[in-house]
């Protein structure tokens, strides 16, 4: 007479390691650009989505974020860097501190643009229109109603 086999017991779900105080930090995955959470003290993080391994910056390294001007991907970089290359579209973005930049709407598509103080013009990454800074719009750009 055959003996019925019981199903194997389900192993318990793995519990992620967290330090005793539960402190965690975050960084952007170097592969898929998802935000990764990791316990303090980790030296690298493996992304659950794309399996890319991202190196954790050394403790005490101050990080900053910006949106890529080419594809609008969130980029993280070490504070103090002057430029950041996007790993998705390869656009080189200026990494300026908040007190060094100003904003203007594109003269063509009205997209909000960021530029360095002192610049005379800024080129829109969306429509490639060049907007003059600090100059009144020309009469060709003005719309008159009758």
From TrEMBL:
<keyword id="KW-0539">Nucleus</keyword>
<feature type="domain" description="Zinc finger LSD1-type">
    <location>
        <begin position="68"/>
        <end position="92"/>
    </location>
</feature>
<feature type="domain" description="Zinc finger LSD1-type">
    <location>
        <begin position="29"/>
        <end position="53"/>
    </location>
</feature>
<dbReference type="InterPro" id="IPR040319">
    <property type="entry name" value="LSD1-like"/>
</dbReference>
<dbReference type="InterPro" id="IPR005735">
    <property type="entry name" value="Znf_LSD1"/>
</dbReference>
<feature type="domain" description="Zinc finger LSD1-type">
    <location>
        <begin position="106"/>
        <end position="130"/>
    </location>
</feature>
<protein>
    <recommendedName>
        <fullName>Zinc finger LSD1-type domain-containing protein</fullName>
    </recommendedName>
</protein>
<dbReference type="Pfam" id="PF06943">
    <property type="entry name" value="zf-LSD1"/>
</dbReference>
<dbReference type="InterPro" id="IPR036280">
    <property type="entry name" value="Multihaem_cyt_sf"/>
</dbReference>
<dbReference type="GO" id="GO:0005634">
    <property type="term" value="C:nucleus"/>
</dbReference>
């Amino acid at each position: 007479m055959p003996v019925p086999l019981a199903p194997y017991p389900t192993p318990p779900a793995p519990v992620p390691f967290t330090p005793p105080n539960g402190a965690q930090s975050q960084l952007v995955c170097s592969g898929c650009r998802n935000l990764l959470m990791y316990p303090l003290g980790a030296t690298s993080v493996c992304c659950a989505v794309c399996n890319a391994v991202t190196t954790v910056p050394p403790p005490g390294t101050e990080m900053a974020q910006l949106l890529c001007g080419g594809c609008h991907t969130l980029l993280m970089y070490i504070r103090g860097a002057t430029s950041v290359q996007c790993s998705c579209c390869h656009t080189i973005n200026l990494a300026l501190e908040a007190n060094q930049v100003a904003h203007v709407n594109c003269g063509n598509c009205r997209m909000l643009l960021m530029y360095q103080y002192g610049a005379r013009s800024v080129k829109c990454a969306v429509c490639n229109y060049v907007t003059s800074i600090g100059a009144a719009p020309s009469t060709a750009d003005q719309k008159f109603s009758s």
